Amino acid sequence: MKIEFKGLSFVHLNDEIFAEKIGNIEGVKSGFTEIQIAGENNDTHMGIKAACSSEARRLKYLSHKITDDELIITQKSDIVEAKTVFKGYEDSDAVRIYTEVKNISGNEIILEEVSAFTFSGIGVKGEEGDLYFTRFTQSHHYECQPIRRSFKDYGLDMSNGNAQKRICFANVGSWSTKEELPQGIIEQNERFLMFEIENNNSWYYEIGDNCGKYYLYLGGANLPNGGWEKTLKPNESYKTVSVALSFGNSLNEVIGEMTKYRRHIAGKCKADENLPAIFNEYMHLSWDSPTEENTRKVAEKVAETGVKYYVIDCGWHDEEDGNIIYPYVGKWKESKKRFPHGVKATTDYIRSLGMKAGLWIEPEIIGVKCKEMLDYYDDDCFITRHGKKIAVMDRYFLDFRAKKVVEYMTETVRRMIEEYGADYIKLDYNEDMGIGTDKYGTSYGEGLEECARAYLKWIDDIQSEFPDVLFETCSSGGMRMDYGTLSHFSIVSTSDQADYLKYPYIAGNILSAVLPEQAAVWAYPVGVGEIGKPLSYDADWIKENITDERIIMNMINSFLGRMHLASHIELLSEEQFALVKEGVDFYNCLIESKKRSVPYFPFCFTDFSKQEVASGYIADNVLYLAVWNLDRTGDIVIPLGKEWNILSVKIGYPVKSDTKYLLLNNELSVHFDRKYCARFFVVRFTE
């Protein structure tokens, strides 16, 4: 018997069920669930690989149920029952998958590994040079940097059958995307498979060989990769993280299908429905030392740009200087030194100018020198290992499984909103706790998983309680930029990159990882001076040294995502400021198209070695295209869709531009006679 669902095909033979096709990838009739139970035989010699777990060959078909948008396949062994759930979506070929495992043995068992989904049959041994895998590397100020290599380049080779070698990555810790994004793209002969793992802590993927073909394993943490074990008593169950698969015949198509799927699961917020432009004081302005005086110097000019929110970042709280403030944070009560009339007086002033006001907070930590909160919290309020508080960068981690933590942080948010006047709250997270906690669980990995889930539950609760407030998630930039997190938030910081000339390499790739309506990108036209210190230049210096091209590039950096305007724009000349205002106006014109767009990568992906970058999105047969010219002069030739009938091409921003461009044979040639310039194009076409 065959079971067909949303491009997936399964075969039920006798008492077994196999996955034989997913999208445009043919399989080898193999199992799709891996479960390793402590003490049970792992029937393989393949080292640390996750394949061939104890229950994989024991699982037998029990039942299946299919509806218009869901397929549930249930299997069982003598020890566990495994229910794998596949969910489809009307406007995308992507499928979301998770597995739920129930202990039916009558005895306590320990799970050491559970896959959300495994598929075998990718490519054929001996064709490694035709198989490619793109992984998405990450770091501070270096977010979303894809690397494409052949399987052979990664070390998989036909001469070594059923080998120990893997293409794999294991994130371990509470920063889910500090080294790599939980996604990847496999391609062979213009067939593309993209996956993502939706988890805000530890996760794991693996590509390896088995019986002449390659398999893909997707899941959360496991014992060897994340220190995860889970004890199940009789009749208890465990549900894995969700993963998603999309398919296509090109890079743009497969990312487009994943993009359409992400819109179904992305966090929603009534206050964020119209994707408002935001000004944040942090970058190249107040840094960690905002004051009532500084805000009043800047806010009136900011209001003239047309942005909707004005956010005061770290430092509105506590009395310590900004360069030493972090070990003391945790009370989240206003600074009388920096805001002598109270924070509410400043947020009221912001509102009087026609903007809404925002405040920053780091809710998951307290400083190691925050005596008041150390005295207030009980021992069970902290995340620990071996009974000791975990400390990173002079901060301890709070455990949101503790009622006292939830109550205090909920009251903190209420105080920020009702007493301090916050319409927007930026939730930051600047540390990684590592492998997890041994408190209340079988393993470090399980403890980390439960702490992470408790935090997201609190997030859901406060957003339900304050539906008119916009909550941003940030993790020292993009260090927790996964769709386990982004299914709870409508907006995320993509980076804290402080150099506008480097941001195009992030902005040029970011739509492969985050929806354009969620991806916040900084624009700081006056991005000069020493990082973390007050600007030492005056308006005359700015007028002479901040060029129009610097302003234009900064604005374009933010056009594909969510604008986070920053820096001392009050020092700009009237002509320079007009470019900022034009940029905000143009951003606002892009809002509706962004909500229904799919990404377009004319050069595939970019990296920090490139001298030109082009990236955009398509909505309603219009391509909105950012073109960055960096350390070069001359022509940039950008391929457009071969099948397009192009109706018009124009520069959307800046309106006044002497940049020459030419459309020929569905290629857009743009001439730059200066280094470090950017232009934003609007291309209308039919297909």
Number of helices: 11
Q: Characterize the main sheet.
A: 10 strands, antiparallel
What is the number of strand segments? 41
Beta-strand share of residues: 25-35%
Poorly predicted regions: none
The global form is globular
Rg value: 26 Å
> Which whole number gives the mean pLDDT?
96
Helix/sheet category? alpha+beta
* N-to-C span: 40 Å
Helix content: 10-25%
Q: Would you give an account of this structure?
A:
The chain is α+β, with helices and mostly antiparallel strands and 687 residues long. The protein is 19% helix and 35% strand. α3 (292-305) packs parallel to α4 and α10 packs parallel to α11. The longest helix has 22 residues, at 444-465. The mean pLDDT is 96.
Keywords:
687 residues, alpha+beta, ten-stranded antiparallel sheet
What secondary-structure arrangement, pairings included, does this model have?
Blueprint (H helix, E strand, L loop, with lengths): L1 E4 L2 E6 L2 E7 L2 E6 L4 E3 L22 E7 L3 E7 L3 E10 L2 E12 L5 E14 L8 E7 L7 E6 L16 E5 L8 E9 L2 E8 L4 E8 L2 E8 L9 E3 L4 E3 L2 E7 L2 H15 L12 E3 L1 H5 L5 H14 L3 E4 L30 H10 L3 E6 L3 E3 L3 H6 L7 E2 L2 E2 L1 E2 L2 E3 L5 H17 L4 E4 L16 H22 L4 E4 L17 E3 L9 H5 L11 E5 L15 H7 L2 H10 L4 E4 L8 H21 L3 E3 L11 E8 L2 E8 L4 E6 L5 E9 L6 E5 L2 E6 L4 E10 L1
Parallel strand pairs: 21-22, 21-33, 22-23, 23-29, 29-30, 30-31, 31-32, 32-33
Antiparallel strand pairs: 1-2, 2-3, 3-4, 5-10, 6-7, 7-8, 8-9, 9-19, 9-20, 10-17, 10-18, 11-12, 11-14, 13-16, 14-15, 15-20, 16-17, 24-28, 25-26, 27-28, 34-35, 35-36, 36-41, 37-40, 38-41, 39-40
Helix pairs in contact: 3-4, 10-11
